[in-house]
Amino acid sequence: MSHRILLLGAPGAGKGTQSAKLADEYGVEHVTTGDALRANKEMETEYGTPKSFMDAGELVPNPVVNEIVEAALDDADGFVLDGYPRNLEQAEFLSSITVLDAVILLDVDEEVLVDRLTGRRVCDDCGANFHVDFQPPEEPGVCDECGGELVQREDDTEETARERLEVFYENTEPVVDHFRDEGVLVEVDGEATPDEVFDRIRDVVEN
Ligand code: AP5
């Protein structure tokens, strides 16, 4: 059975970490607007480049992101969607183009989120995620998966991380209400080890 799963949660809640596990477990596409936009940071749009919004911790304009998501979902036979929707207009657009089986909201305290974001390191070559304290690589600064260099994302400084959290708290409530009204939203406590959080999510998806 192909799954259509949406993971919601603040920056640092573990959406990327859990989406990768879900995509692996169920053999579905991992569709993430953050990665898609980072790969197209310099793309000229009528609103400017995605980079100009991302480096300030702001949302990229809806038409740009909606188009990326529609194309990705069109091509996917089952997916786990991460980083989208981030406001009510995106949520309504998503509901108009697909039907979701499960919407999971990862719940994590704000100060834990800041620690996770500022300590995150990402492989410059393969994109694998690490954390200097919670998920350290075997050799500091070197990716366990491919030997690539681990770097800090430009928007993971404390100042930009806090700005991203502000943007999330301002925009997310209507999104959560939208999916709660559709009767598909389940909240999952995201403060445990990645494997424990994954077990909780799998329980929701399968039951
Ligand atoms: P995006 O890339 O989507 O970033 P985000 O939502 O801010 O989410 P993150 O990737 O920071 O966090 P995550 O929840 O995936 O956490 P992770 O698993 O890595 O978006 C970036 C920017 O792009 C936005 O600011 C915006 O400008 C733009 N954008 C994207 N989508 C958009 C949209 N729809 N509309 C408009 N603009 C958009 O985990 C974080 C760290 O914690 C890692 O180091 C990890 O190792 C660690 N960790 C994870 N789980 C645990 C755990 N259980 N215990 C301990 N540590 C853990």
Protein topology:
Blueprint: E1 4-9, H1 15-26, E2 29-32, H2 33-39, H3 50-54, H4 62-75, E3 79-82, H5 88-97, E4 102-107, H6 110-118, E5 120-123, E6 129-131, E7 150-151, H7 158-181, E8 185-189, H8 194-206
Parallel strand pairs: 1-3, 1-4, 2-3, 4-8
Antiparallel strand pairs: 5-6, 5-7
Structure notes:
Helix content is 45%, strand content 16%. It is built from 8 helices and 8 strands. It has helices at residues 15-26, 33-39, 50-54, 62-75, 88-97, 110-118, 158-181, 194-206; strands spanning 4-9, 29-32, 79-82, 102-107, 120-123, 129-131, 150-151, 185-189. The strands form 2 sheets. A 5-stranded parallel beta sheet has the order 2-3-1-4-8, with helices on both faces.
Span of the ends, CA to CA: 14 Å
Mean pLDDT: 94
Number of helices: 8
Largest sheet: 5 strands, parallel
The H-and-E topology, N to C, reads as EHEHHHEHEHEEEHEH
Tally of distinct domains? 1
Question: Which outline best applies?
Answer: globular
The CATH architecture comes to 3-Layer(aba) Sandwich
Largest sheet, spatial ordering of strands: 2-3-1-4-8
Structure class: alpha/beta
Helix share of residues? 40-55%
CATH level-1 class? Alpha Beta
Query: Strand portion, in percent?
Result: 15-25%
Query: Which molecules are bound besides the chains?
Result: BIS(adenosine)-5'-pentaphosphate
Q: CATH topology, what is it called?
A: Rossmann fold
Gyration radius, to the nearest Å? 16 Å
CATH superfamily name?
Answer: P-loop containing nucleotide triphosphate hydrolases
Enumerate the spans where pLDDT stays under 50 for 5 or more consecutive residues.
none
What is the tally of beta strands?
Answer: 8
